Amino acid sequence: MRISIGNTFSYSNHLDGMFNILIISFGLLYCNSFESQGEEKILSSVNITETAKFVGHRAEITSLDLLKDNSTLLSSSFDGTVRVWNLKNRTQVSEVSPPSLGEYLQSAFFLREGTHFFSTTHENCCILDTSTKKEIFQKDLPNTSIGYSSDRKFLFSGQEDGSINQIEIIGMKTKRSWSAHNAAITAICVSSNNSLIVSGDMLGEVRVWKSETGTLLSLLKGHLGKINCLSITRDTTKVLSVSDDCHAKVWDLHNSKILVDFQKHKTRINCGAISPDGKVILTGDSQSGLAGHIPPQLLLWDANRGDVISSFVGHKSTIFSVLFLDNGREALSASGDPFQRDNSIRLWNLPSHN
Fold this sequence. Notes:
Structural class: mainly beta
CATH topology: Methylamine Dehydrogenase, Chain H
Helix content: under 10%
Shape: globular
Number of helices: 4
CATH architecture: 7 Propeller
CATH class: Mainly Beta
Distance between the termini: 24 Å
Number of strands: 30
Radius of gyration: 18 Å
Number of domains: 1
CATH superfamily: YVTN repeat-like/Quinoprotein amine dehydrogenase
């Protein structure tokens, strides 16, 4: 099972989701670095094909998760629903509105090979049976960001005061808590082998932790805006961070140095994911211009050199989530806005990256 954005969810982007269009209308999310350079066009060097579009959500789509065989997709939304989709026949299987959570669902992910799923807001959480759609567990869970272990045994909740809580998902018992940042934590990512936790905050700092002990391993400084998303390569050698400062950075986890400082987005980058082989990165940004009339971009780029492989437009609303399928040749993206212009999930066929 894989969850969008490398097992992370950014608090800050969705907290102001209701006002996102108005903010963009006044150009506050447009990168100043591009204004002084004039209009820059990034030309697609290869074709990216949209092979499916999933519609049904009525507000921003906040997370995506896949079963291990990539056959079934789970999505959560600010419309208060969790939806299950069949990727093979491109249909919606079911829709659930967790009764204890209300609207503004933060995330949802599969448990127990898909028989159950876990869903959260920024205030509470619940576990539901996928087939019966009934809640079997509910608990308060105040948080500003959430990250999940790949085995779905633990979650890591970031707090407004900069602390991190490690919690057992079954039973929701807190195993460990520690003071991690000097500002609210806005993104958390857990490595695929569950050995590392990477967290980012409102001030743009990124910190790397040993998951077993909560020991600080490194401090990564370089962003000038809040961290919206984090992703770790499967070999745990690199981490991707994306920010309000319109930069996406690839860090070497051995020496804490920046390997790539990607600056091709013109608006706030909300999400990013690293391909399973670690060779390419997909990032998504926000719509811009008066009333958000300029659509957001998805950029596919080389993880080692930062070269743009392709830029492509399909969504009409801000992109909040991206996710590679395990074959590395396909990816999913999800968007939305409160005016329901484009609350969709799209499946893309990507070029090979040998």
